[in-house]
Amino acid sequence: MVASLHLDPSEAFIPPGTVIPLKLFQMKHGKKFQITLPSSIYEFSVENKSVVTYDSQQSEVTSVDFGDTTISVTDKNCLDELEEQPEALTARFYVREPKYLSMSVFPYKNWALIMGKTYEIQVDVFDSKNQKLYIGDVSSYGISSCS
């Protein structure tokens, strides 16, 4: 593995069109420090660019089409052909079709609401195998019904 690095997320199930920030952290003396991206030291590469794309300037992953892929991080300082390459740090992305959603009301998880009170509605989206999908920071999503 490259130094003591960690990618966040290291794994994500997402629908097409989702944009996710990709963060790189390093552990030093038992503390986690975020590495500013883009970086002159670390290089990111996408295994299958038909599934996701990576914007190195924004450090964002965008899902394009259904499938699975990996994003790898390499240390540019270790690119010397004579030097043994460390195992690449990777993040895995699974782009899946949303099949159903679940809604919860907080703070009481009860749909009997009282006028004048403030509530939060949480919407979770799942694929056909009941895997929860990360839908990113969106303010609205369209829902349609198939007959």
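Above is the first protein from milestone M3; the second protein from the same milestone is given next.
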Amino acid sequence: MLAALGEDPVGPGDETEEMEENLTRKLIILTAAALLLAPAAMAADPGKGKAKSAEKAAAAQAAAPALPNGAQRCVALRTSLTPAVFASTYGANESDKNAFGKCVAQLNRANVSAKAGAASACRAEQGDANFAASHDGKTFAQHYGGSDDASKAFGKCVSQKAKAKVDASLRAKAKAVKACLAERRANAEAFKAEHKTFGRCVTAETPPS
């Protein structure tokens, strides 16, 4: 009857071919869609790279020896210098009640600066291809971390270098305090005329770090 109406009869073989063509087209469309959506999915989720970097940074910080904060150092300084000399060094005079706060602020800034400098130095060492040759054959990780975990080694490197930097500056300041005490004892009037305050003398006698 279909032939009589001028239409081509559709046999079982023709239906199979049409189904295969439809499936092929669908597969092509789905593949293209997946390729287009992949970059969007990666943009929505920054990926495991950043997560791993954050984990490494956290591990490095946890592994690093704690750097004494400003308050801890200032308590020790106040004891070693005596309260009066401490107040004169960090405050306006021997009775300056804000001396401790000024000391803490000053040493916290020193810690931040020392850490930044140490991180830069440690990155340079970590990337030095000849590091082992100048460190008894040990790699950066082995020298600072005692293991092959570079993330822990970096944190320890930063803490060691930053602590050494701040310790050196405090030793220089302690030397300046002694020099100023000796100068004041020798001639109090001349000392006051030249320096005005004890703190200014300490600043002048302390070499730049």
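Note on the second protein: Confidence is low (pLDDT under 50) at residues 1-13, 30-45, 57-63.
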